[in-house]
Amino acid sequence: MPKPVVAGVGMIPFAKYPQRSLVDLGAEAAFLALKDAGVAPGRVEAGFFANAVGSRLFGDSTIGQNVLWEVGINRIPVINVENACTSGSTAFYLACNAVAAGQAEMALVVGAEKMCVPEFGLINSGESEWDTQLGLVAPASFALRAQRHMLEFGTTVEQMAQVAVKNRAHAAGNPVAMFRDLITVEDVLAAPMIVDPLTRFQCCPIADGAAALVVCSEAVARGLGRAAVRVKAVVLGTGGYESPQDLAHWETDYRVCAQAYEKAGLGPEDLDLVECHDAFTISEILHYEALGLCPPGEGGRFVAQGHASLGGRVPVNPSGGLLSRGHPVGATGVAQVIEIVEQLRGQAGPRQIAGAKVGLAHCMGGDKAGDTKSCTAAILSI
Amino acid sequence: MHIDNQQDTLPLVPEGIAAEAGETGPVLTGGHCPHCRRDFFPRPRHCPQCLQPPEERQLSGDGVIYSYTVVRTRAPFGLPQPYAVGFIDLSQSGLRIFGLLNQSDIGRLAIGKAVCLKLEPLGLDGKGGPCRRPYFSLAEREGDDA
């Protein structure tokens, strides 16, 4: 069975691009990834385009074909992927599977989002869902987890704030991150309260952006003469949805992370870095625990003791994460993989983790019945 | 509490998940699979285990707060600002469900406190008109002026 590798990456800084279209953003990232891999568009045998809110905001559909033709890719299978915040990581999952199955020797993954427009409100689980109509918005479902975590494990608001402070410090070394000015715990706690106990600095900002990856078989990569990063495991799971859900011990998160470790034949002790879905500060704390970086309930103390910082035991979100890089929904899952690839290639500049060999990208999306709708985890190595 | 007839006829949002049940007050409209002996809320189309159609079952809205929060962003659907939401552990069915909390309980909410279900005018429906929504209110103690 062919082994998938990442042979090229490209992304544009996450920011606000009021003058540029979604297709324009996606096409630039695709172009950069093809250039990085050193391949012509004719080599690409499958395309996976991720976008979450374009159809709602702009009424567009089958956007991927528009983006890929901007970089000269036509005739091949092109699949448009929507899976909430995991749209990009799901597109990556599909591309790796297509390569592993021998259906394509080379695939292009593009994630793009344009959401900094006046029409955009707060993310919810769908206007027609009953819980949305009862006021459930994305920050609320994480605040409800935070309240439980604080009660059950003694996690403090200061510890949660540390996640935002750490990720901002990491972003200071990342030129494509949206927010790079340092903040303090006091700044985080003094910011306007969004949903108790999460202040504005504990909620990831929306952004425009695009990111792309060239995925191919190990054999094809050898021919390219580029340093390829191996995909040791890439898994996708959905929620369990049964009642009652334990909001402080996220079964879906634990299950998907365990599957990734099992498939890769690796464990948390093997990781040199993690990119995880820090949509809110409490999310990152929950993911430390699901990923086995610390025992259940210890996530708050784990970050406060510096274990997740650059220079710590397992740096988490060295890119700055969603909290500081910004969260253009469809692009995020792709950008996370790019951070892992750049770290493993030794190209991460001031935020480089010395000698990084193994990294894990983790993402989550959607909300249903007190559970996530989608969770992905990918383990990459060099 | 006095509820006039006009309020009683306001549309219910979301549709079909709660109902007035006379003397006992409002109840949640859930489902029950007689084959698997499981309760659900809301009522699913099929039992997720055996795929038989579940019966409609009125579920008591009495429970305790499992978690709660106060949403201070711009409120959707004409809800009050701020408004409170939470997960409630229903005492009878053992289900843990999401719901709105009584806005006037903000400041007194705590995990573990007992709540009961209300079905009263709250927010706007999809057409921008007044409607009723189910929400949970802190259970009133005997002698409280409620």
Terminal CA distance of chain A? 19 Å
C-alpha-based Rg of chain B, rounded: 16 Å
Shape of chain A: globular
| Whole-number mean pLDDT of chain A | 96
Low-pLDDT residue spans of chain A: none
Strand content of chain A: 15-25%
Largest sheet of chain A: 9 strands, mixed
Strand order of the largest sheet of chain A: 3-2-4-7-1-8-11-10-9
Q: Indicate the CATH class of the largest domain in chain A.
A: Alpha Beta
Strand count, sense and closure of the main sheet of chain B? 5 strands, mixed, barrel
| Extended strand count of chain A | 11
The CATH architecture of the largest domain in chain A can be given as 3-Layer(aba) Sandwich
Question: How many helical stretches of chain B?
Answer: 1
SSE pattern of chain A, N- to C-terminal: EHEHHEHEHHHHEEEHEHEHHHHEE
Report the span from N to C terminus of chain B.
8 Å
The count of DSSP E runs of length 2 or more, i.e. the number of strands of chain B, is 9
- Helix fraction of chain B by DSSP (H/I, runs of at least 4): under 10%
Largest sheet of chain B, order of strands side by side? 5-6-7-9-8
Count structural domains of chain A: 2
How does this structure look, described?
The complex is a heterodimer of chains A (382) and B (146). Chain A is an alpha/beta fold. Chain A has helices at residues 22-37, 54-58, 63-70, 87-100, 130-133, 138-153, 157-171, 185-190, 218-224, 251-264, 281-290, 299-304, 321-325, 329-345, and strands at 4-11, 46-50, 78-81, 106-113, 193-195, 198-199, 209-217, 229-237, 273-275, 358-365, 374-381. The longest helix of chain A has 17 residues, at 329-345. Chain B is an all-beta fold and 146 residues long. Helices cover 3% and strands 42% of the residues of chain B. Chain B is built from 1 helix and 9 strands; from the N terminus they run H-E-E-E-E-E-E-E-E-E. In chain B, a hairpin with a 5-residue loop joins strand 8 and strand 9 (130-138). Chain A binds chain B through residues 121-122, 124, 130-137, 139-140, 143-148, 151, 192-197, 241-245, 247, 369-370, and chain B through 13-14, 17, 40-42, 48, 66-77, 79, 83, 85-87, 89, 94-100, 111, 123, 133-135.
